[in-house]
Design a protein that fits this description.
single chain, alpha/beta, 9 strands, 17% strand, calcium, Arylsulfatase B, metal ion binding, metal-binding
Length: 280
């Protein structure tokens, strides 16, 4: 099953007339390795993802792209990236490009089908003009960042500009289309998960919910609260220990979103999809 087929599955769900339209929650990890989940035999503990795997359907023949932008483009458009001009690389912050504006994205289709559409986390599909932003491409709300990666705590991203031989840093955390400074110091995985849970709890049942939670985890830089690293003291390599801790926070996020759905009474009518956006 490829990314296009996943989008088609969503569209087929909408065509059902014999049942209430299900809520759709799509949790997308970033740079998660195939062997870095518990049910694949990893030393990293992922009990919440393991539970979903045991109780749900594994798409073991489902592939993503090795780079962020092409993979997310496929998910949002349902089209292989060569058809949208995004097959070469990621979209860099200064690059004047985004997913072509004549492409209808998944949230636009779901919104037109009656869904409330919300996005939390990483966009990375272009931002050089306002029409490229998530809130102009079908999402009714957006809380997250537009570039490819950033500091998990300060939410700043620094880039070296080689022609000028200088480094520039900027804050990239937005609530809607506006930059917000309220969350400096909050670890992004926990911050984004809390916002996702808030959206779930505030959702009213008059319309179905589409929530796209695109986590920063476990993309670099290697940053994680120490309490998540401590259980992996048996791992000798420092970076691997930190990575394991980051995976644990990601897994906890999956558990917290699942619990929010259950507490809000939405669990039994929700299609929950967990995937990675890229594989390392």
């Amino acid at each position: 099953m490829n990314v296009r087929e996943v989008s088609l599955v969503f569209i087929c769900i909408l065509a059902r007339v014999d049942a209430k339209q299900p809520n759709i929650v799509f949790i997308l990890a970033d740079d998660l390795g195939w062997n870095d989940v518990g049910y694949h035999g990893s030393e990293i503990r992922t009990p919440h993802v393991d539970r979903l795997s045991a109780q749900g359907v594994r798409l073991e023949g489902y592939y993503v792209q090795p780079l962020c932008t092409p993979s997310r483009n496929q998910l949002m458009t349902g089209r292989y990236q060569i058809h949208t001009g995004l097959q070469h690389q990621i979209i860099w912050p200064c690059q004047p490009y985004c997913v072509p504006l004549d492409e209808r994205l998944l949230p636009q289709i779901l919104r037109d089908a009656g869904y409330n559409t919300h996005m939390v986390g990483k966009w990375h599909l272009g931002m050089f003009q306002r029409d490229c932003l998530p809130t102009r491409r079908g999402f009714q709300s957006f809380f997250g960042y537009l570039t490819g990666s950033e500091d998990y705590y300060t939410h700043h991203r620094c880039y070296f500009i080689s022609p000028l031989n200088i480094t520039r840093c900027a804050l990239d955390l937005r609530d809607g289309e506006d930059v917000t400074t309220r969350y400096t110091g909050r670890y992004s995985t926990e911050l984004f998960t809390q916002r996702a849970a808030d959206i779930i709890h505030q959702h009213t049942p008059d319309k179905p919910l589409f929530l796209y939670l695109a986590l920063q985890a476990v993309h670099g830089p290697m940053q994680v609260p120490e309490r998540y690293v401590t259980p992996y003291s048996f791992i000798k390599d420092k970076l691997r220990r930190e990575y394991a801790g980051m995976v644990s926070v990601m897994d906890e996020a999956v558990g917290n979103v699942s619990k929010a759905l259950q507490d809000a009474g939405l669990w039994n009518n929700t299609v929950l999809v967990f995937s990675t956006g890229t594989v390392i």
